[in-house]
Task: inverse folding
């Protein structure tokens, strides 16, 4: 099928296109130079913004943890439900929508690629089952490897190459996309009811420190030539004073940076940028983090914006979630996944009038506005931890309009308002910056070659928003900006029109992307490893790997490793 | 004043959010007749299920009064989210009556289903018959219980009355089921007669008064003192003597559970701890 998008204001940062009026031609799901104008179906995008489809680098949308959250919160469902239409299925859930609804809601906002950032390898099959049921968007997942016993043992013994081969096998076995570290070392300690306090604490029984894990896996990442860097949720997350830990985490891989290429991604950085000694002296550490990131080029990060709403926090960081449960007194689930990782879920309500919550809201925006280069910081809410992803249009408005920020500032806790840096920041992002932070930058950081741009050969994932940047001032008319980004005029997935005027009009399958990491010699699974499976796991080794036929639409990405 | 007469005996669960004084206010009879209502999986009009009559009376407040005459035991969510006005029901009524109501008054001369006054924030509900489980309790999984207002039941109630309660008062002049005041944080629950036990489980604050027999007291409550009388609300006092227990200690709670001394001789062994 041929498609021609005519006369839109195109924002395509990876190709340096900044708001030029252009036509985009699509053929067979790819972007092409030109199509037969008479035969092609035409979309009149005059007066509208055309961007590549949105890419989300970090959003918890599938897997056992998300599903446990759904079970824990029936009250999250009855207030937010969508009846079925001729095209879509019915669904429920505000902060943790059901699989189909997740796909539809992302597509309505013009998003076409979403990465689930935490997959316990043991639950990989479940994660892929839910991916299969999430339509329209392309998906991938990062297996949690920072507290995996084999990795800890290899790194302790300094066997980097063996570790790399093992990680390659893991990525293939779980059909994962990148190496994820959550509170490295801390989750293993959580199995014994402890945590680690800093980068140089020993992990109990393993004689290894978080610093060694981060540095080691970063080296592994390089040896394997993975498209994305290591994806790190720092130690001490959510604790006052933890900006120091975040800075140390970034510093500890400085020596691996080559040619100004990023080697580490700090995720939901807002939760790692707290200053102060306790919750009473709690303050924003955004300035220190931003200064460091502005001076170095080996780091990318995402915001983890807090939205004032009722949401569900869920991370693999079991000890953090336990602390949060003790703080809030809410109901909770906490879990230690055998030999691999842990997890926790606590419902949470971010309130405008709460000093701590209001400061958290301010930190993420400060980070995004103080870091000069938009290629280094991306827009997320760490869905659903900071807030549900349907709040993205709100964040776009805050980033693009000082007026929108001031209007929210008026309503927040007065002490937090007095201490916030936001009133002194005049920066207002433009559509070009926004396109970087919501799609191009994220796709580049993920190493997705066919996504996040509109060059010839790219996947025809395109979002069209009904907002005229020539006639309407985005900084003043932030409400219509919000409206435009909430309901895309068109979302085109693989060259098919999936959404029109904010409604899903066609069911399109999204694919599941995974890395096929090819090492010089195939990884052999030793008898020792099989024996350990028998000893430590509740599943047999043979049941562990996810085979390719398990994925409904599989998209294999081949990576040649250096080992 | 609008009077609704059910046209037939209801066979299917019916959802009637539209029976709400605010929705009816300033609407002509024809407009009211066209309001949509769900019967089972069919969307219908109010006039399909009810005969609607308008009576002109002198109403000094100007607020709409809705009267339902007949059995609406399968009709749910009557008066949900209402802020003003009055609903009077002569007959039984279904689940979720007055859900999340913020003001106004509902009177039921009959029995009410489960979740009556669920998550309500203000106003009054008076039920002259019995009610089912979850009186004033929130939807499953939700911890945002009753935030204010008043519920009076002259008959018996089921289990978990006033669960997750934050504020307001529930008065039960009959018996209560198990787990009255489960996880309550504040507010008052008064049970004039017997309670089936486990009253105040996981409560952290607030006040529960049991005037009759309490089947069993949770072991996580500690005795504080014996009181002669307890204030239920302004102008109403329950005559004792009452044992005052504090709990629930598993939640580090400081809730007050008053249990009648004369009706509960099996609790007398607690007196030696005084």
Result:
């Amino acid at each position: 099928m041929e498609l021609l998008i005519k006369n839109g204001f195109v924002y395509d940062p990876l190709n340096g296109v900044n708001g030029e009026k252009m036509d985009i031609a699509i053929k067979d799901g790819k972007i092409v130079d030109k199509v037969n104008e008479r035969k092609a179906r035409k979309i009149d995008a005059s007066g509208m913004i055309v961007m590549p489809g949105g890419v989300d680098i970090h959003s918890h949308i599938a897997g056992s943890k998300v599903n446990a959250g759904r079970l824990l919160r029936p009250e999250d469902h009855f207030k937010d439900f969508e009846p079925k239409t001729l095209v879509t299925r019915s669904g429920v859930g505000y902060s943790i929508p059901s699989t189909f609804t997740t796909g539809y809601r992302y597509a309505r906002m013009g998003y076409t690629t979403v990465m689930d950032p935490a997959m316990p390898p043991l639950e990989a099959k479940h994660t892929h089952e839910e991916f299969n049921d999430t339509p329209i968007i392309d998906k991938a997942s990062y297996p949690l490897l920072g507290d995996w016993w084999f990795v800890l043992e290899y790194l302790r013994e300094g066997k980097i190459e063996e570790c790399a081969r093992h990680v390659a096998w893991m990525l293939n076995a779980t059909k994962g996309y990148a190496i994820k570290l959550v509170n490295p070392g801390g989750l293993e300690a959580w199995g014994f009811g402890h945590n680690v306090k800093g980068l140089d604490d020993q992990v109990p029984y393993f004689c290894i420190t978080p610093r060694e894990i981060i540095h080691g896996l970063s080296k592994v990442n390089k040896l394997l030539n993975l498209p994305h860097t290591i994806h790190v949720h720092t130690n001490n997350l959510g604790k006052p004073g933890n900006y120091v830990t975040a800075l140390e985490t970034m510093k500890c891989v400085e020596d691996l940076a080559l040619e100004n290429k990023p080697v580490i991604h700090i995720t939901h950085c807002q939760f790692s940028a707290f200053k102060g000694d306790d919750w009473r002296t709690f303050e924003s550490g955004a300035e220190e983090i931003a200064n460091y990131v502005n001076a170095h080029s080996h780091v990318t990060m995402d915001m983890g914006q807090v939205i004032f709403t009722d949401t569900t926090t869920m991370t693999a960081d079991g000890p953090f979630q336990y602390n949060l449960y003790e703080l809030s007194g809410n109901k909770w689930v906490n879990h230690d996944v055998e030999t691999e990782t842990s997890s926790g879920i606590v419902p949470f309500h971010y309130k405008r009038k709460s000093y701590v919550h209001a400061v958290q809201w301010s930190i993420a925006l400060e980070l995004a506005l103080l870091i000069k280069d938009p290629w280094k910081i991306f827009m997320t809410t760490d869905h659903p931890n900071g807030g549900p992803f349907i709040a993205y249009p709100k964040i776009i408005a805050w980033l693009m309009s000082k007026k929108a920020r001031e209007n929210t500032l008026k309503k927040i806790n007065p002490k937090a308002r007095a201490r916030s840096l936001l009133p002194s920041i005049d920066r207002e992002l433009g559509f070009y910056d926004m396109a970087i932070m919501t799609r191009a930058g994220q796709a580049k950081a993920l190493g997705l070659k066919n996504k996040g741009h509109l060059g010839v050969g790219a996947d025809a994932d395109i979002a069209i928003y009904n907002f005229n940047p020539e006639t309407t001032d985005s900084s003043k008319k932030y409400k219509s900006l919000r409206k435009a980004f909430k309901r895309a005029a068109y979302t085109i997935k693989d060259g098919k029109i999936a959404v029109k005027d904010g409604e899903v009009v066609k069911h399109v399958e999204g694919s599941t992307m995974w890395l096929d990491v090819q090492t010089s010699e195939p990884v052999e699974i030793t008898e020792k490893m099989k024996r350990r499976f028998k000893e430590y796991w509740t599943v047999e080794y043979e049941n562990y790997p996810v085979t390719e036929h398990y994925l409904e639409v599989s998209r294999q990405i081949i990576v040649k490793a250096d080992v | 004043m609008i009077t609704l007469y059910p046209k037939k005996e209801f066979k299917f669960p019916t959802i009637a959010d539209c029976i709400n004084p605010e929705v009816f206010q300033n609407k002509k009879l024809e407009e009211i007749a066209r309001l949509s209502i769900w019967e089972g999986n069919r969307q219908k009009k109010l006039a399909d299920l009810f005969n609607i009559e308008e009576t002109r009376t002198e109403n000094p407040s100007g607020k709409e009064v809705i009267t339902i005459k007949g059995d609406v035991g399968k009709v749910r969510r009557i008066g949900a989210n209402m802020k003003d006005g009055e609903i009077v029901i002569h007959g039984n009524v279904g689940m979720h009556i007055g859900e999340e109501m913020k003001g106004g008054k509902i009177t039921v001369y009959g029995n009410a289903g489960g979740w009556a006054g669920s998550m309500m924030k203000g106003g009054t509900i008076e039920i002259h018959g019995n009610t089912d489980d979850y009186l004033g309790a929130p939807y499953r999984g939700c911890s945002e219980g009753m935030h204010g207002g008043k519920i009076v039941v002259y008959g018996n109630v089921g289990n978990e009355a006033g669960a997750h309660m934050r504020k307001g008062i529930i008065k039960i002049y009959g018996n209560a089921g198990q787990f009255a005041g489960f996880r309550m944080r504040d507010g008052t629950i008064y049970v004039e007669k017997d309670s089936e036990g486990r009253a105040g489980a996981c409560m952290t604050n607030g006040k529960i008064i049991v005037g009759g027999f309490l089947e069993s007291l949770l072991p996580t409550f500690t005795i504080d003192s014996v009181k002669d009388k307890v204030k239920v609300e302004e102008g109403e006092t329950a005559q004792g003597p009452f044992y005052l227990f504090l709990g629930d200690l598993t939640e580090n709670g400081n809730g007050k559970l008053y249990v009648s001394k004369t009706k509960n001789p099996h609790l007398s062994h607690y007196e030696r701890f005084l």
Observations:
- The interface with chain B takes residues 72-76, 78, 330-331 of chain A (CB under 8 Å).
- The radius of gyration of chain A is 22 Å.
